[in-house]
Design brief:
This protein is of the alpha+beta class. It has a single domain, classed as Glutaredoxin (3-Layer(aba) Sandwich). 24% of the residues lie in helices and 23% in strands. The strands form 3 sheets. A 5-stranded mixed β-sheet has the order 6-5-4-8-9. Strands 1-10-7 form a 3-stranded antiparallel β-sheet, with helices on one face. The chain has a two-stranded antiparallel ribbon with strand order 2-3. The two termini are 15 Å apart.
Length: 182
């Protein structure tokens, strides 16, 4: 496991266009969420301990915005040949067991991750209603222990966008396992 931090964000960049299969067999993409007030694109995986530690909080956070027109999307871009926990079948099983409240997409070619500039899991990108990058950073200030969370940066960024407020350019990077490239 290689600890990787996300680089500084290019705030204001347009969300890369993509269409990918979901773990439950649908084709989904950026066009499906063009009317979202906020779009949260998360590069995640099943085998990464950093994602496993925050997975429940991500699911709860997404559920808490279900009536706010905030769309969460998970994407797994890992090479599942060498990391079978991240195979489509295993992702579907985890998605069902954990009761994910958002789509989980499969980036088999890894082109979507490359287009986003994603480097690790979790790598979290938040786009405003114009699909412009407004936040790239961590979920909160305690990836390992939910009882030690004092600052929920992702929730704060979403709330600021929903309230038409400016998000600070000072954003704390997310950290996690490097994407497992082919």
């Amino acid at each position: 496991m290689t600890l990787t931090y996300t680089p500084a964000a290019n705030l204001g960049d347009s969300c890369p266009n993509f269409t990918l299969p979901s773990v439950d067999g649908q084709q989904m993409g950026l066009e499906d969420w063009k009317n979202a007030k906020v779009l949260v694109v998360m590069f995640i995986s099943a085998h990464c301990p950093y994602v496993q530690a925050i997975e429940g909080r991500l699911i709860q956070l997404a559920a808490s915005y279900s009536s706010e027109n905030v769309q969460f999307v998970g994407i797994c871009s890992n090479d599942w040949t060498n990391f079978p926990e991240d195979s489509p079948e295993n992702l579907l099983q985890r998605w069902q067991e954990k009761k994910y409240t958002f789509p989980y997409l499969i980036d088999e070619t890894q082109e979507v991750a490359k287009n986003f500039g994603a480097v690790c899991t979790p790598d979290i990108f938040v786009y405003d209603h114009r699909q412009k990058l407004a936040y790239r950073g961590r979920l909160d200030d305690s990836w390992k222990n939910p009882h030690q969370v004092h600052h929920e940066e992702l929730r704060q960024a979403i709330n600021q966008l929903l309230n038409h407020q400016t998000i600070s350019n000072k954003q704390i990077p997310s950290m996690g396992c490097s994407i497992k490239w082919k």
